[in-house]
Amino acid sequence: MRNTLLEIRGRFDVRMLVLYAAVPVFLGALAMQMLKLQWYEHAHYALQAEQNRLNIVPVLPVRGEIMDVEGRGLAINRIAYYVQLIPERVANLEETLAALAEMLHWSDSKLEQLRKRIQVTRPDRPVLLDDKLQWEQVSPLAARLHHLPGVDVESGSYREYPYAGLTSHLIGYLSLVDKEDLDGRYFPSEFIGRAGVERSFEQELHGSPGSQQEEVDALGRRVAVLKRSPSVMGHKIRLALDIDVQKAAADALGDSTGAVVVMDVHTGAVIALLSQPGYDTNRFITGLESEQWKTWLNDPEKPLLNRASQAAYPPASTFKLVTGLTGLQHGSRLANGSTNCPGYVEFADRKLRCWKRSGHGMVSMHTAIVQSCDVYFYQLGDQLGMGAISDAAMEWGLGVKTEIQLSPESRGSVPTQSPYMMSAIKNSASKRMKWFRGETMITAIGQGALTATPLQIARLAAAIANGGKVLKPQLLADVPPEVLNQVDVSEEHLNIIRKAMRSVVEDPSGTAYRVLGDAPWDVAGKTGTAQVIKMAQDKKKALSQDLLQRQFRDHAWFMGYAPYKNPKVAIAVFIEHGGHGGAAAGPVAAEIIRVLAAKEQRAGADGVQP
Amino acid sequence: MMRMLKSIDWILLATLFCLAMLGMVTLYAAVHQGAPGLWQKQGMYWGAGMAIFTMLCFMPLRLLGLACWPMYGVALFLLLLVPIIGDIHMGARRWLNLGVMNLQPSEIMKWALMFMLASWFASREARGWVEIVVPLLLTVMPAALIVMQPDLGTTLVLLFAATALIIAAGLPWRLFGLAVVAGIASLPVLWHFMHDYQKQRVLTLLDPQSDPLGAGYHVIQSTIAIGSGGLFGKGFMHGTQARLHFLPEQHTDFIFSVLAEEGGFIAVALLLFLYGLLIIRILWIGHRAHSRFGSLLCVGIASIFVLYITVNIGMVSGLFPVVGLPLPFISYGGSALVSMLAATGLVMRVAIESKGQIPWQRPGSPLA
């Protein structure tokens, strides 16, 4: 027993000796390999390390500029100088910063901010100290650069929006790429379009980055450029937008909150697309302070919202044109005849009022449009039914996206006779029917659940002018028109409506006579006044619109086209809480027409086609 | 408590302390310009690892002997689950998602198998069919599962530790020789079953210049770093290779190249000396252990350290293909550090239990 045990122990001792011996074998082999590399072949590798100094740096592409139809820059690139510092190469950081602060006129708080930024960045990476500098500002610094090791003055381009306030929603803005965007086409320091045209046409505008192989010294400083694959500049984009018209619209809107869309009736080209209030897109470029962003986000006026295409409002009386056309198409007796307006319409136990309490008396389609009689269209809507009205609304491009290249886009809403709508109220079938009948009549005058964007309304005006072609709004200049839907409507019926629209402006009893009657072009149009809250009519009457508190005031609409005989442009003006459509929105349209007419006259005088 | 302090193996602890210092200094050089906080984190991992080390110093080895069967069973079960419900990471299916954490069952198996074999041979020698075939099966089952994941590194660790244990347990040399021949003969079969990226790594090893910007890049750059360090190095934080970020993963698997570049052969020799000291000391503790289980445990742990060190340094200096094994106590990484400190804690426990005791060779010892 003892012998066996000793035998086992003895064998174990031998085995352990083998294992002890194995350790220096393994470690020794590693040591030999190290000696080979670090001693025998050291010179070879030292040389390789010397040469091992290629650095690949990106060459950023120049972003394509965005022009208006006459070639004026809406988003342009400016050359500017920026100052950066590589902390580990600076001899005395405090002295350097003090010298820079004096030359570049930095405030103490900025200096403090920079100190913090330098502390948190890797010492071998450049820290941006100041940018958007002009040559006059950096030239004294450039002369002293050799006294300031680690400081660098470089030139680069930055984006500028000369008409920032006017074009904020249309052009949009850029910001630094995020991790998600880095799919190989972008370098981390590049900018990418985040809204508007800058975003929709990112692919065209961006171009493609190149790269540069640089030789660097042991500290990573550039010694020479070895290879360069150039970047490809982004495409220039010319928009159909006319900044003169855009500016006229903005001037006419003044401080009002609202939107204006001007569109070529034949091509769908967007000549103006304005939403107010705007915001200063230039402030995004150097990295927007989150404070400013929050202010914009929380502003009750919602400056970031594009009211022309992202927001939908009740189209109010402008929608009567669609109801009227539908009546004519359906051969309704009322559409070809007339009815009496006593100032209200009664059905079952409900009473819907006309805006004119005293009533319009006997009204035909023509007078009902000219004077915007509600009772006539209540009755016409009642006869047509919700199905016919909503079908027609969709035909004319409401409740569907216009496919403009600005996202996100609101499609607005068109109520339908769906079971869902019917079950919206949990009541007896007869009560439901009654509710629905009232809802149909309200929809017929463009109120209730019906909403549309100003862009859709401008397109509706264009479609009435061009013979029922619902066009895709085109942002780019000189692109062929795209007809998204041809409404099945006869010229004869269209002419009845067009004539009435002309009378709205021309006839002294028309709702827009006072403001558009003397416009340089013959305008055909329709006003709209969208109720914001249900307020007893008599109570409202007591207060004039000016005195009503702003948020309770009605939304004002004007839509139309001009010239009447030879239509060129369609216009939609929407003013949030603007009050009466004719009085508030009409003058904006008038100003736009004046600018358009003047431009045409000038172009005619110069012998140049616009 | 005093008895405990007296029986501590101070040489083992001092070696560990020196490795900690060398590791933290090297890591500082490797990350001082990179992501902040890594160095501090590694310090915290050392703290956590030493806490576990201390706890294990109080755990009777008997408990480990009892726990190794269920531990092995659970690890094998989890390994079987991996191909069924495992997560795929970088082309390999190794992880089990437990909701709160991702678990790599092969990591558990590495230790479980070692405990298992030590326990098996604690009362028998590897000299008889049953005595050899059972541990062989215990090794081959998990190894096959892990190599299919595929995880070449851990498979290698498993096989290497098992081999060292079986040799210590008295495997006849004839059989060992036979196994080596069979292993070499089976290499072509292994090649057949290897994944493309693994084949690529082996090919790259044979000729790194064939793919200087792809798979060979790591090896070329780290070899340049090591070679250019020379005998005396470029000085602390003065490595040009490390500084210019030519080195991949320079704080984890490739940290050795930072040490070799900045400290030169002097630092490399110091590191290898410390490793040698550590491993010989572990073997010595095993040799003098009071229980055969403790002896074999130490052999297993020492063999794992040897393999990690050899594979890592061999990989970084172009001797072996790129296999992702960390450099013990030097590479950045919490779980590797903690598990290695835990293993060293077990060795310390063996030393504590054996202090003043006669090595197992008399009647009354476990084998009797």
From TrEMBL, chain A:
Residues 258-593 form the Penicillin-binding protein transpeptidase domain. GO terms for biological process: cell wall organization; peptidoglycan biosynthetic process; proteolysis; regulation of cell shape. Gene3D superfamilies: DD-peptidase/beta-lactamase superfamily, Penicillin-binding protein 2a (Domain 2). It is found in: Cell membrane; Membrane. It is an enzyme of class 3 (hydrolase). It comes from the Bacteria. Residues 61-225 form the Penicillin-binding protein dimerisation domain. InterPro entries: Beta-lactam/transpept, Beta-lactam/transpept-like, PBP_dimer, PBP_dimer_sf, PCN-bd_Tpept, Penicillin-binding_protein_2. Pfam families: PBP_dimer (PF03717), Transpeptidase (PF00905). GO terms for cellular component: plasma membrane. One of its GO terms (molecular function) is penicillin binding. Its EC number is 3.4.16.4. Keywords: Carboxypeptidase, Cell inner membrane, Cell membrane, Cell shape, Cell wall biogenesis/degradation, Hydrolase, Membrane, Peptidoglycan synthesis, Protease, Transmembrane, Transmembrane helix. Its main location: membrane. The chain crosses the membrane at residues 12-35. PANTHER family: PEPTIDOGLYCAN D,D-TRANSPEPTIDASE, PEPTIDOGLYCAN D,D-TRANSPEPTIDASE MRDA. This is Penicillin-binding protein 2. It comes from Mariprofundus erugo.
